[in-house]
Amino acid sequence: MSEPSSTPHGPAPLLVIGAGLAGTEAAWQIAQAGLPVRLVEMRPVRRSPAHHSAEFAELVCSNSFGALSSDRAAGLLQEELRRLGSLVIGTADQHAVPAGGALAVDRGRYSAALTEALERHPLVTVERREHTELPGPGEIAVLATGPLTSEPLAEQLRAFTGRDDCHFFDAASPIVEGESIDLSMAFRASRYDKGDADYINCPMDREQFLVFRQALLEAEQAHLKDFEAESAHFFEGCLPIEELARRGEDTMRYGPLKPIGLWDPRWGDLNDRDVRRAKRAYAVVQLRQEDRAGRLWNLVGFQTNLKWGEQKRVLRLIPGLENAEFVRFGVMHRNTFLESPQLLDPTLQFRQRPNLLAAGQITGTEGYAAAVAGGWLAGTNAARLARGLAPISLPPTTMIGALTHFIAEAPSDRFQPMPPNFGLLPELPTRIKAKRERYGAYRDRALADLAPFTPTPSRPATPVPA
Fold first, then answer.
1. What is the torsion angle, in degrees rounded to the nearest 10, for the CA atoms of residue 435, residue 437, residue 441 and residue 446?
2. Fewest C-beta in 10 Å: which of 141, 163, 260, 307?
3. Does 372 fall in a domain?
């Protein structure tokens, strides 16, 4: 393997394109390996359809990284990243807000902290400009432009791969002011009776639910740029609330409006069967704390493509939100991802150009932590290539390894974005029937197999909440 080119002052900087979750992590890992890196970010010179700031690693949809417990798929992925020295997950831990059993962050403080960390690192040079061309064959680079890759670079990528880009439509939830929520109607409780009472719950009876659903069905949608609405493909893990409403009367009630385990003590004694039958909510809308002070709350599972005026009208039909003040309305945008099984190795290198690596949602992984994982691996391998070392891939028994092996080896004719899940991991040697014990065994095996790759002695797994 040839050594990278150098300048009179040392090795040439490696290139990371995009300062989202993946690019931020990749640039940090390269710099922490003692190598200079150029981090190119187009914001604020050019805005994307979904971002609201120029900060690095902005969380566009939810402020939650998913379940915190390491016997859950998202939690295991987070724990693996902690043990590998991830800046992005470590910063999330520092800026966490109450969210029951989930890892959620104060978005503004979180992104600002990551931006400051990269801008102050002596080996990181930040360039605020749009990068319109793919790096040359001799340059070691990480492509981390995310699902909202700008069109000039996307066109270069299509020409390079010889393939049309894949796409699906993703959406973000609205955010309301906490002081505008009517707590005489709403109540605090945990999500599905797990963890602390960190959520605000807006209960509906059957009549209120049916009126709300009908309003969703009749509300006017925003125009989807570049594509006709009927041609849009939605990612199943992030469906707009109006799409859920269209799929059947009970679909929302078995999804984000599920009332299981939610009880307002003002209704009476939960142990009284007659009271329980009379008062149990038919559906419940939940709101999760968005900032550390608890002044902002997002509607959980309420990604939407409704016009903003329609969002205000329809969402104010929810009991407790009649006078809600919206600080951000939901938006929908096109997400682009590569046909990775045809293009990438589990090391995240392009097969036809090993010096070019891809990371984040553009590779076809889904979720914040998965994007961070791709950034960690791509940045680590870019640094190894620059030092003349062989790139690594993590064992498929780890969640990171399972995701990267999946996107490299999945059947390409039906490839769609994949979130972390235990179904990606190889089966255990012995069948364990109880789900909690089985997931715990997956976790124990994953963390044991990850140990040879961790830079510091392994730390205890994240405690499982009672």
1. 60
2. 260
3. yes
- Asked if 16 and 37 count as a contact pair (C-beta separation under 8 A), the reply is yes
CA–CA distance, 291 with 297 (Å, rounded to integer)? 8
Handedness of CA 319, 323, 328, 333 (dihedral sign): positive
Domain holding 142: CATH number? Answer: 3.50.50.60
Residues 158, 11 within the same domain = yes
Domain total in the chain: 2
Which H, E and C letters describe 135-171, residue by residue?
CCCCCCEEECCHHHCCHHHHHHHHHHHCCCCEEEEEE
- Looking at the structure, tell me whether residues 11 and 28 fall in a common domain: yes
Strand, coil or helix: 17: strand
286 and 366 in a single domain? The answer is no
| pLDDT at position 465 | 29
At 356 the three-state DSSP class reads strand
Tokens (6 digits) for 143: 């492509």
Domain check: are 279 and 258 in the same one? yes
CA atoms of 57 and 19, how far apart (whole Å)? 6
**Which residue, among 127, 110, 122, has the nearest Cα to 53 in the 3D structure?**
110
- pLDDT bracket for residue 293 (50, 70, 90): confident
The rounded distance, in Å, linking the Cα atoms of 120 and 52 is: 23
Residue 5 has φ and ψ, to the nearest 5°, of -65, 160
In a domain, 48, yes or no: yes
Tell me: do 270 and 303 sit in the same domain. yes
**Looking at residues 85-105, what average pLDDT do you find?**
95
Give residue 227's pLDDT.
Answer: 38
CATH code of 311's domain: 2.40.30.260
Condensed to tens digits (0 to 9), the pLDDT of residues 236-282 reads 667 889 999 999 999 999 999 999 888 888 888 777 777 666 678 99
Residues 342 and 445 in one domain: yes
Distance CA 66, CA 191 (A): 12
42 falls in which pLDDT band (50, 70, 90)?
confident
Alpha-carbon dihedral angle through residues 151, 152, 157, 159, given to the nearest 10 degrees: 110
Q: How far from each other are the two terminal CA atoms of the chain, in whole angstroms? A: 51
pLDDT band at 466 (very low <50, low <70, confident <90, very high): very low
Domain that holds residue 229: 175-330
Query: Are residues 320 and 208 both part of a single domain?
Result: yes
| Contact criterion met (CB below 8 Å) for 199 and 287 | yes
Evaluate the omega torsion of the peptide bond into residue 256 and state whether it is cis, within 30 degrees of 0: no
250 and 139 within one domain: no
Residue 1 lies in a domain: no
Look at residue 178 and give its three-state secondary structure. helix
Q: How far apart are CA 321 and CA 317, in angstroms?
A: 7
